[in-house]
Amino acid sequence: MTDPYARTGAHAVGAEPAGPGAEPSLGELISEITSDMTRLLRQEIELAKVEIKAEARKAGRAAGMLGGAGFAGYMVALLLSFAVAYGLSNVMDLGWATLLVAVLWGIAGALLFLRGRSAMREVNPKPEQTIETLKEDAAWARHPTS
Known about the structure:
By secondary structure, the chain is mainly α. It has helices at residues 26-88, 94-121, 128-142. The longest helix has 63 residues, at 26-88.
């Protein structure tokens, strides 16, 4: 039994046009557009993944710097605070010496915080290149001949 809806000849989907100068059929054009759009979408998704991964790496490095600076700052502040406070206690009261050391470490902590915050501001979670190419693709889809 034959399928009455089966297409044969040049009208079959995926078939070559009848002659060298023949126009492709509507089905062939739609198939080609669908294939192109699928490929384009996959490329855009891959580009977004690459961009997001790069930004996540930058954010991870910045967070690592902030964490390392915090821990190192804590250890240095703790141990040096004792040493400096006891050293200054020879020329002033131990309470004033300890306060002076705490103020100095407060300034150091503020500087580390400002540097870490500056590094975090450089992180851009938006995939800028992907957004730009999507805008270009949308413009092309609206006006494919321009």
